[in-house]
Amino acid sequence: MTDSGVLTLPAPAKLNRMLHIIGRRDDGYHALQTLFQFLGHGDTLTLAPRADGEIRLDADLTGVSTDDNLILRAARRLKEASGTRSGAHITLDKRLPLGGGLGGGSSDAATTLLGLNRLWSLGLSLERLAALGLELGADVPVFVRGHAAWGEGIGEHLTPVELDTPWFVVVHPGVGISTPSIFGASELTRDTPPITMARALQGGASSWRNDCEPTVRALYPEVARALDWLGERAPSMLTGTGACIFARLEREEDAEALLAEIPERWHAFKAPGRNRSPLHDALDRRAS
Fold first, then answer.
1. Which residues of the chain have pLDDT under 70?
2. How far apart are the first and last CA of the chain?
3. Where are the alpha helices (DSSP H) in 90-232?
4. pTM value?
5. Is 175 helix (H, G, I), strand (E, B) or coil?
6. Which residues are catalytically annotated?
7. In the chain, what are the domains?
8. What is the predicted pLDDT for the residue at 30?
9. Cβ-contact 7, 46 below 8 angstroms
């Protein structure tokens, strides 16, 4: 971040360390139980004030229409809710893959909300910003609140937790996955018995799973191949509805060694797990 009124902020990735689907609600959404954790890797947003009140975005997001762009939607919703006349020029450095299950769009929206709240000196609370974020998507509130969390409902009922913070190697097998296509699949498991947060945490990482993984395996052979390859080398799992998968490693040097083995046809990166969002760390540094 600079001292010139321009904010440069991270929009970190998330992992679903666990994802159970325990039912389907009357409104068509699925009832979930999940564990969210952040990564020390993600997109970067630069936000600069505009005196003319306009909101402009520089981003190369092929296939994402203006109306669907969560950054613009977040900025416009915050401007409307606050009544401010301020504007902003937003630049996105996109590193996270679209449709990867890493929450990139939701994280970008949360960084927009928190960053513009600071840039425009609005003083809105995290609770208010999280409520605005929920209007944009179920994953936005966890990024706004900024702490690893046990999530229930459609993922919006959050309880902060402390998880282990190993290194991860994240692999994108080069395919895009539509979340509605997975949640709409007839073969998707929707009746996992609910468990308590305490039981989930007591079981630990070795007992965690993702209920979407069998469906994604069946529908996307390249993801299945990547899961098999990675699973032979380290404990591995799908995040969200995919397409990204992650392997858990104890040490950075182990992550580096695994990263060096990844087949060239797949994109991959390594990153540490974080219980506190790098976005909140960056905002704190700005305030100090």
1. 1-4, 62-67, 288
2. 12
3. 104-119, 126-136, 140-145, 179-183, 197-203, 213-219, 221-231
4. 0.95
5. coil
6. 14, 139
7. 7-161+277-287 (3.30.230.10), 167-274 (3.30.70.890)
8. 92
9. yes
